[in-house]
Design brief:
The protein has about 180 residues and is of the alpha/beta class. The protein is built from five helices and six strands; from the N terminus they run H-E-H-E-E-H-E-H-E-E-H. It has a six-stranded parallel β-sheet, with helices on both faces. Helix 4 links the parallel strand 4 and strand 5. Helix 1 runs parallel beside helix 4.
Length: about 180
């Protein structure tokens, strides 16, 4: 029974993803990074060894005066190795019709962040929907086949799993956005 339920949920979530990709009316442009005030971050908690780099990244953004809000996707309970508050999207937050039932996650999706950084190369269906439906002005992530419509700016990864290098590149490239680009 559970697999039938999951298949139905997946079907509707895929439809919502397609609709979000085609019909998202958010204004997409990049502001100069130095003037950016709000940053959304999606990160993957599966790899605890990355917690130090993610903590440093968030701390650095806050030190620059940016408001930071973060979300992660979680299947099981895990220890919290992070030094900042974040919202959790869980499978149980998605109903049979693929609708996210978590208020904080829906608020995250509807917030027009200056930048939304996706710090993960492992994007499952709920996360793809979160990125596609996001009202962020500029969505930044790693380049991957079939994810081109989820991001406004994509970077090639140097080595698989080199998070420190990826974060360094995010900051380097977005800091070069000197004027607004639409």
């Amino acid at each position: 029974m559970s697999s039938i339920k999951e298949s139905i949920k997946e079907f509707f979530l895929k439809r919502k993803l397609e609709k979000a990709i085609k019909g998202n009316s958010a204004d997409r442009y990049s502001v100069p990074f130095a003037r950016a005030k709000s940053v959304g971050i999606y990160f993957n908690t599966d790899n605890a060894q990355y917690s130090k780099q993610i903590n440093e990244f968030v701390k650095g953004l806050k030190k620059e005066g940016k408001q930071v809000e973060a979300v992660t996707y979680l299947n099981d309970s895990q220890d919290n190795p992070y030094d900042f508050p974040y919202h959790v999207l869980k499978d149980e937050n998605i109903n049979l019709f693929g609708e996210i039932q978590a208020k904080k996650i829906n608020q995250f999706i509807n917030t027009p962040f200056d930048y939304l950084f996706c710090i993960s190369d492992d994007l499952n269906l709920p996360v793809k929907y979160l990125l596609a439906a996001s009202k962020a002005k500029c969505r930044v992530g790693l380049h991957a086949e079939n994810n081109e419509l989820l991001f406004d700016f994509m970077m090639s990864g140097s080595k698989k799993g080199d998070l420190k290098e990826f974060i360094k590149n995010i900051l380097r490239y977005t800091s070069h956005f000197a004027k607004e680009m639409a």
